[in-house]
């Protein structure tokens, strides 16, 4: 009878992965739809000189991050508890990027929070007001400077007992922040071709003290929300959803219908204009 153990995928390549079990790390062939973070059942290959295994089952996931690739869902990572959205004054992070990731996280069963990175850079009132919008809807916001390692202790404390994926625009400092928290450079593969050496990223899960897990999964920067219905989208804007319950008509379009409570709350400053505009844009596009 072959020996079977439960493990977690801690590195994922195009056709293979590394699984950590209680008896060590096993190189395994990847099976369909497996991603970094997955808990799996592994059949250990006994007669091998190397640490090899066959994945025979993917266990139930608490969450999964994916994005549409044509008509199919491309999976990126599983069993994430939190998504840290990096927001920076330079380059400026748009409210659209923030709201997209808030919705994507909520719909994926993951809790979003905001990392206000680059606090070493002077921020204007517009930027500070942008952050206030998310504090006002009870979104956790942590201030830090990854480059200068300022206030990383607060972030690390928050990360305890969590499995986190960081997301951010190019230049937001995601790789710098991840490397500082992890204590090492992110893992990559170097591929050579006739035009020189190119680097391709590896999806990895890093385990740290205090039960902190950081997942680095390339390709999750640009996302769309086309797979979600209009009813789903409004539910992701919690304050707008609550306000809509007090509209005069159940089928209110929240643009120009009579008795719209959402428009009333926008005019009165109860709902932020940027959140409202993003809601309409996501819903109607």
UniProtKB/TrEMBL annotation:
Domain of life: Bacteria
PROSITE patterns: ENGC_GTPASE
Pfam families: RsgA_GTPase
Alphabetical list of CDD domains matching this protein: YjeQ_EngC
Single GO molecular function: GTPase activity
UniProt domain EngC GTPase: residue ranges: 78-221
Classification via NCBIfam families: ribosome small subunit-dependent GTPase A
Protein name: Ribosome small subunit-dependent GTPase A
Organism, scientific name: SAR86 cluster bacterium
Gene designation: rsgA
